[in-house]
Design a protein that fits this description.
heterodimer; A: alpha+beta; Arc Repressor Mutant, subunit A; Alpha-Beta Plaits; 2 domains; 5 helices; 6 strands; 32% helix; 21% strand; extended; B: alpha/beta; Aspartate Aminotransferase, domain 1; Aspartate Aminotransferase, domain 2; seven-stranded mixed beta sheet; three-stranded antiparallel beta sheet; globular
């Protein structure tokens, strides 16, 4: 049941528990309990809203930063990551395989603000060897949802 | 001037669905539960294969029977899913949708006066195609008490010495009924006993719900040699607009079907055939994903009917529910027309699929949850009004 709940909720976290129970053919109680358990176990870590900021009047700049680091004695990647992800400007931090170590997503009001964060906060860290900043120009698809097109039902109303 | 028309075609009624479609089209901002096709777009990897074939300039006819590559993939698929072995060169034919396969199979097999058994409620084209092929349609009226399955008794009642073909429309549009292995075995025994042939329309074969999967009647002992199996890509892979289906049949029948296909159609659309190769080869995951999604919505619709006090037997296949409206003392058409006028929701009267569909509606659940909620909410309101509860 877990996987099925997650598959539905990943696309629609606002679904009524009542509806969800009907869809899955389970009791409302069982579904509610399962969700509560998953929240406790941090399988479900939050309920966010997918916003296409481009369609608002708010200015937002998002950058992806490649970060190379040297892990130091007694301080593995996790410790360095923690020093980075504690900043509120940082939206996401991933440890990567390949040419660099961390992918860091940063959100700011302006490019200058982001650049400042990189030059004043991120680069000066002891373990950080180098950074490469890439600004996001346009988001086409996010969290599995296409942002740029409207979905319309183009089927004829009645077909055999 | 002489009458330009054929006597046969003028005796055939236009599809009842057409009539209802015209009424619905005149209704502004009507919403619908009347669609007989998936709400998914064709999965992208399939569409891309079609686009890629165009980029490579694959814009010519294919062989009459269809791309060899596709026929091989279809043979693999039938082996994998139905445990059936077909020779891609001798026993498979790629057609313009399952509809063409129905038509040419009947034309290839019928002599004047041969009787074709058509269980109803069922898809709208079996009857006219039988008549056009010179056969005589004989209707078997299925009943809700049998879960709209074809029973041995019902079959025996209609067999005469002229009976040649039995049409097997399962999983069924519009009822959602499926035939289990034991049901098929009972039918197959009679078919063998009376030396009949079966035209098995298994277009919804991937959409069966619950632990038991679809069984093809062709896979039963002694049945492959007397079965024309019809399938296609429309429902399983959400490819209705590509117009692509196929028939798997004994060579003696396939050979003659191919002849009609060759003269009437030439070959199925090339782009669609290339896309279909990707569908059968790599599409099992898509099928699984869509089936799960239909199954969820199936439960949702059945639950809603229960809440509003409409009886509906549990459909285990396709993407339709077939609730009974008998208790309102209206015909299906009256109910559907009033529902459309008063709540602006289109559903299809059961009678479109045969006279024995009287008292039922076909409700398609190939819609988003949001649309289903809206439409079913209006249905509940309508039903309450009929019950005098509002």
């Amino acid at each position: 049941m877990r996987e099925k709940i997650l598959a539905v909720m990943e696309k629609n976290s606002r679904i009524d528990i009542k509806d969800l129970a009907v869809l899955l053919g389970e009791s409302e109680m069982a579904v509610a309990n399962e969700i509560a358990d998953m929240e406790k176990e941090h399988v479900i870590c939050g309920y966010h809203t997918l916003i296409n900021w481009d369609n608002t009047s708010d200015e937002k700049v998002v950058a992806l930063i490649e970060v190379k680091v040297t892990p130091q004695r007694g301080m593995g990647f996790d410790k360095i990551a923690e020093r980075i992800y504690q900043y509120s400007e940082v939206n996401a931090v991933y440890l990567m395989s390949g040419a660099y170590d961390f992918t860091v997503f940063i959100e700011g009001k302006t490019m200058r603000q982001v650049a400042q964060f990189v030059s004043e906060k991120l680069s000066p860290m002891e373990s950080v060897l180098s950074t490469a900043t890439h600004f996001v120009l346009k988001k086409y698809k996010d969290h599995g949802t296409v942002l740029v097109q409207e979905v319309q039902d183009e089927r004829m109303l009645i077909t055999p | 001037m002489r009458n330009p028309l054929s006597d046969v075609i003028t005796t055939i009624e236009p599809s009842g669905i057409r009539k209802f479609f015209d009424i619905v089209s005149e209704m502004k901002d009507a919403i619908s539960l009347g669609v007989g096709e998936p709400d998914f777009d064709t999965p992208w990897h399939i569409r891309e294969e079609g686009i890629y074939s165009l980029e490579k300039g694959k814009t010519f006819y294919t062989s009459n029977a269809g791309l060899k590559e596709l026929r091989i993939e279809i043979a693999n698929y039938l082996k994998r899913r139905c445990d059936l072995t077909y020779d891609p060169d001798q026993e498979l034919l790629v057609t313009v949708g399952g509809s063409e396969a129905i038509d040419i199979a009947l034309r290839a097999m019928l002599n004047p006066g041969d009787e074709v058994l058509i269980p109803q409620p069922s898809f709208v084209s079996y009857l006219p195609c039988t008549v056009l092929a010179g056969g005589t349609p004989v209707i078997i009226e299925l009943e809700e008490k049998d879960q709209f399955r074809l029973t041995a008794q019902k079959l025996r009642e209609k067999i005469t010495d002229k009976t040649k073909i039995l049409i097997m429309p399962f999983p069924n549009n519009p009822t959602g009924a499926v035939m289990r292995r034991e049901d098929l075995e009972a039918v197959a025994e009679i078919v063998r006993e009376h030396d009949l042939f079966v035209l098995s329309d298994e277009i919804y074969c991937e959409l069966t719900f619950g632990a038991r999967r679809h069984v093809s009647i062709a896979s039963l002992p002694g049945m492959k040699e007397r079965t024309v199996l019809i399938n296609g890509f429309s429902k399983s892979y959400a490819m209705t607009g590509w117009r692509l289906g196929y028939a798997a049949a004994p060579h003696v029948i396939q050979e003659q079907m191919l002849k009609i296909h060759q003269f009437a159609i030439m070959c199925a659309p090339t782009t669609s055939q290339y896309a279909a190769v990707a569908a059968v080869r790599d599409g099992d995951g898509d099928v699984e994903r869509m089936r799960e999604s239909y199954d969820q919505r199936r439960r949702f619709v059945l639950h809603a009917f229960e809440e509003m006090g409409l009886t509906c037997f549990e459909p285990n296949g396709a993407f339709y529910a077939f609730p009974s409206i008998k208790r309102f003392g209206m015909t299906s058409e009256e109910f559907a027309s009033r529902f459309l006028r008063e709540e602006k929701v289109a559903v299809v009267p059961g009678t479109v699929f045969g006279a024995c569909g009287e008292g039922f509606l076909r409700v398609s659940y190939a819609y988003s949850l949001k649309s289903l909620k809206e439409a079913l909410g209006r249905m509940e309101r309508f039903v309450k009004r009929l019950d005098g509860k509002v």
